[in-house]
Specification:
Layout: H1 10-21, H2 25-38, E1 43-49, E2 55-60, H3 67-72, H4 100-106, E3 109-115, E4 122-128, E5 131-138, E6 143-149, H5 156-161, H6 165-182, E7 187-192, E8 195-200, H7 205-213, E9 221-227, E10 231-238, E11 250-254, E12 257-259, H8 262-272, E13 284-290, E14 295-296, E15 307-308, H9 311-325, E16 357-358, H10 385-388, E17 437-439, E18 443-448, E19 451-456, H11 457-473, E20 480-490, H12 493-508, E21 512-517, E22 520-527, H13 535-548, H14 557-569, H15 579-590, E23 605-609, H16 610-616
Parallel strand pairs: 1-7, 11-13
Antiparallel strand pairs: 1-2, 2-6, 3-4, 3-6, 4-5, 7-8, 9-10, 9-16, 10-13, 11-12, 14-15, 17-18, 18-19, 19-23, 20-22, 21-22
Helix pairs in contact: 1-4, 2-6, 6-7, 6-12, 8-9, 11-14, 11-15, 13-14
The structure holds adenosine-5'-diphosphate (ADP) and magnesium ion (MG).
C-alpha cells in the first residue's frame, strides 16, 4: 500500500492556525493594534466598517518595515521580537509568536503599506488567502498601514458564526480600550463607518481613563501606588460610591498586557471590604509590573490568564495599597503591613524584602458624603430592596394603568382587561390557606392531596413576573408608568452599544429609554408597579446580565430580556411572609401557564408523595 501521510500546503496550515488566533474581527484588531504599539508608534488610527467584517484598517507612524520585512512578516513564525528560546523569558513586547499576520493573511484580503524613516519609498503588498497578489514600491508616509478586508471570506463557516454587528463592534471596542488604557502616551483614534468614536489625545493615565469613560469618572478616582523589589502596582481605584452591583470597569494589566485575574480581583474586593456591600464590585485600573522572568508568558495569544511567580506578594501588595488609597490606614491599625497574614513566597537568594512604599492620599476621607454604599450607614440596605415592594400590599407608583383599586401592587395583568387570567386553584380546593407554612424564609410548604407541596418562593416570583412580562411582550404594549423625575444614566462606550442594541425590546417591555448622546441615557418609563427609586441600579444589573447571557439569535432576545428582568425584579426575598402573602403567591403561581418551571428552566415546586415520605421514614 502506498504511503498516505503528506505535509499540508502552507495555505491550509495557515488557515487552520488562523482559527486559533483570529476568532472574530476583534482578534485581528487586537493583533494589529499591538503590532503598532510594538513598532513604537506615537499615533495609531483604527478604522472599522461593518464591525470589522468588511474592513479593519490600522494606520501607525511607527518604525515601518523594509521591503524584505514587509514580505517576511506574513510568514508563519516570522517575528523580529525574539531570536532564541531564552528571549522568551524576557518578553517586553506584546507580540512574539510571529503568528498573527500569517493568520490574518490566510483568511482575509490584506493590503500592507509600509515605509521606514530612512527610506525614500515604501513597499506595498497585497496578499489574499496566504497568496501574494502583488508587491511594488509605493510612496507613503513613514510607518505602517494594514488594510484587512472581508475577514473569513474563504472560511464561510466562521463568517456565519459571527454575531450581530453590535456584538462584534462591542468586542472591538473592548480590545481598543484595553490597548489605549495602557498607552496614554500614544494618540489613538477609532472610526466606525466613518463616524469618530474615540479621539484620544496624549496625556497621563488619569486623563486617558477619563477620556475613555467620561468626565463623570473624574474626581472619583483614587491613585494607588506600591513598589517592592519584586513587584510594582500603580493605577487608580474608584471611590466606594462608584462601586456597582454589576461588573463594570475592572482592569488589570501585567507588563502592559490586559489580564484577568480572579485571585488578584479578590485582593481588591478584600480591601474594599466594609466600605461597599458584598454585592457591589469596585472599579479599578491597576497596572502590575514584574520582572518578565517571573511571569508565565507562555500563554495563548487569545487568552488573558497569567501566572505570577510572586502571586501572593502581589495579592498582599494590592490589598494593602488599595486600603491605603481608600484612606483606611488611619482607621484600622490591623492593616499594618507587619500584621498582615504572612505570605510564603520564594525569594531569590540574598533578597531581603522591603516594605512596600505607599503613596497616600491625605485628602481622602472615606466617611465624607456622599457615601451611598456605606454599610455602616443606618438604613442603607445593600440589596435591591426597592423591588420587594412589589409584593407588599402597599399602593404603587402612579400608574397609567387604572383599575388597581384594591391597592395590591402585585397582580397578574390578564391578557385582556375583561378576561382575568383563569386560576387553577378553586377546583376541589387544592390548598387550605391556613395550612400553608414557610420554611427557612425560602420555601412555602402546603398539604396537598397526594402529599407535601414545596414551592421555592423566589422562583415562584420569577415565574410570575416572567409570564406577566413575556405575555405582554408578544405584541401588546405592557402597562407602563412615566418616571416622575426622569433619571439619567451614564454608560461606558461598551454599555452604550449594548443598550442601543436592545432599546426596542426594552421599550416593548415597558422601559422607554432615550439617548442624550455621549453615553448619557434618560429613562422615561418603567413597567407599572415597578418602584422608580432604584431604576439605575436595575438597568445596570440588566445590562450586565444581558452581556453575560447574550442572545445568539434575534428572535429570542426579547424572551431573554424578559427572563433577566424577571430575575432582577423578583428580589432576593428571603423574608417571613404572612399567610395571606403566601396564599396570594401560590394563587398567582398557579394562574401561570407553566407554574412548575422557573424562567431559567429549574423547578419551582415539587410534590413529595405520601409513599415517598413513608419510604424516607422507613
Ligand atoms: P509578532 O508580533 O508576534 O512578532 P506578527 O505576525 O504580529 O508577529 O508580526 C510579525 C512581524 O511583523 C513583527 O515581529 C514585526 O517585526 C513586523 N510588524 C508587524 N506589524 C508591524 C507594524 N505595524 N510596524 C512595524 N513592523 C510590524
Ligand atoms: Mg503581533
Amino acid at each position: 500500500m502506498s504511503d498516505l501521510i503528506r505535509l499540508l500546503p502552507d495555505s491550509v496550515a495557515n488557515q487552520i492556525a488562523a482559527g486559533e488566533v483570529i476568532q472574530r474581527p476583534a482578534s485581528a484588531v487586537k493583533e494589529l493594534l499591538e503590532n503598532a504599539v510594538d513598532a513604537g508608534a506615537s499615533q495609531i488610527k483604527l478604522l472599522i466598517k461593518d464591525s470589522g467584517k468588511t474592513l479593519i484598517q490600522v494606520i501607525d507612524n511607527g518604525t515601518g518595515m523594509s521591503e524584505t520585512d514587509a514580505r517576511m512578516c506574513f510568514e508563519r513564525h516570522a517575528t523580529s521580537k525574539i531570536r532564541e528560546a531564552n528571549d522568551l523569558f524576557s518578553i517586553r513586547t506584546l507580540g512574539f509568536r510571529g503568528e498573527a499576520l500569517a493568520s490574518i493573511a490566510a483568511i482575509a484580503q490584506v493590503e500592507l503599506k509600509s515605509r521606514k524613516e530612512d527610506e525614500e519609498v515604501g513597499t506595498s503588498i497585497i496578499i489574499e488567502g496566504s497568496k501574494v497578489k502583488s508587491q511594488e514600491p509605493v510612496a507613503c508616509a513613514q510607518g505602517t498601514t494594514f488594510i484587512v478586508r472581508n475577514l473569513f471570506y474563504n472560511v464561510p463557516a466562521r463568517r456565519h458564526f459571527l454575531k450581530s454587528d453590535n456584538v462584534e463592534f462591542r468586542h472591538i471596542l473592548e480590545e481598543f480600550q484595553r490597548v489605549a488604557l495602557v498607552h496614554p502616551e500614544i494618540e489613538f483614534s477609532l472610526f466606525n463607518n466613518d463616524k469618530p468614536v474615540f479621539q484620544l489625545t496624549k496625556g497621563n493615565l488619569r486623563q486617558r481613563i477619563v477620556h475613555i469613560f467620561g468626565s463623570h469618572i473624574n474626581g472619583k478616582l483614587l491613585p494607588v501606588e506600591v513598589k517592592t523589589e519584586l513587584v510594582s502596582v500603580i493605577g487608580y481605584i474608584g471611590k466606594p460610591e462608584t462601586a456597582r452591583k454589576t461588573r463594570g470597569e475592572q482592569y488589570f494589566f501585567a507588563n502592559g498586557r490586559y489580564i484577568r485575574h480572579p485571585y488578584l480581583h479578590n485582593a481588591v474586593e478584600q480591601a474594599f471590604d466594609e466600605l461597599i456591600p458584598d454585592s457591589a464590585i469596585p472599579l479599578y485600573f491597576l497596572y502590575i509590573d514584574v520582572d518578565p522572568t517571573t511571569i508565565d508568558i507562555n500563554i495563548h495569544p487569545t487568552k488573558t490568564e497569567v501566572n505570577f511567580q510572586h502571586g501572593q506578594l502581589l495579592y498582599a501588595s494590592i490589598r494593602t495599597s488599595v486600603k491605603h488609597a481608600l484612606g483606611m490606614f488611619s482607621l484600622s491599625p490591623t492593616i499594618d503591613f507587619d500584621t498582615e497574614p504572612t505570605f510564603d513566597f520564594v525569594a531569590p537568594k540574598g533578597y531581603e524584602p522591603k516594605e512596600p512604599t505607599i503613596t497616600l492620599n491625605p485628602d481622602y476621607n472615606p466617611f465624607r458624603k456622599p457615601q451611598n454604599f456605606l454599610k455602616a450607614n443606618a438604613g442603607m440596605t445593600p440589596n435591591r430592596t426597592g423591588w420587594e415592594k412589589m409584593y407588599e400590599g402597599i399602593a404603587g407608583q402612579p400608574s397609567e394603568q387604572s383599575g388597581n383599586e384594591d391597592n395590591r401592587d402585585f397582580q397578574l395583568i390578564p391578557s385582556s382587561q375583561n378576561d382575568p387570567a383563569p386560576t387553577l386553584i378553586p377546583e376541589n380546593n387544592l390548598f387550605e390557606a391556613n395550612k400553608l407554612f414557610q420554611v427557612q424564609n425560602r420555601f412555602i410548604v402546603a398539604n396537598v392531596k397526594s402529599g407535601l407541596l414545596i414551592v421555592d418562593q423566589q422562583k415562584a416570583y420569577e415565574r410570575i413576573i416572567f409570564e406577566r412580562i413575556s405575555s405582554n411582550a408578544e405584541g401588546q404594549a405592557i402597562a407602563r408608568q412615566r418616571v416622575l423625575f426622569p433619571q439619567n444614566i451614564q454608560l461606558s462606550a461598551v454599555d452604550t452599544e449594548v443598550i442601543t442594541e436592545i432599546t426596542d425590546d426594552l421599550d416593548s417591555l415597558g422601559f422607554e429609554i432615550s439617548s442624550m448622546g455621549g453615553g448619557t441615557f434618560v429613562i422615561n418609563t418603567v413597567p407599572s408597579n415597578m418602584p422608580s427609586n432604584e431604576i439605575i441600579d436595575f438597568i445596570d444589573c440588566l445590562l450586565e446580565d444581558y452581556k453575560k447571557d447574550r442572545a445568539d439569535s434575534a428572535d429570542d432576545q426579547r424572551i431573554k430580556l424578559a427572563r433577566i428582568i424577571a430575575g432582577n425584579m423578583a428580589v432576593k426575598t428571603e423574608r417571613t411572609l404572612k399567610v395571606e402573602e403566601m396564599q396570594q403567591l401560590i394563587d398567582e403561581l398557579f394562574a401561570c401557564q407553566v407554574p412548575e418551571v422557573a424562567p431559567d428552566g429549574s423547578k419551582v415546586l415539587k410534590i413529595i408523595q405520601v409513599q415517598e415520605i413513608d419510604k424516607l421514614l422507613r
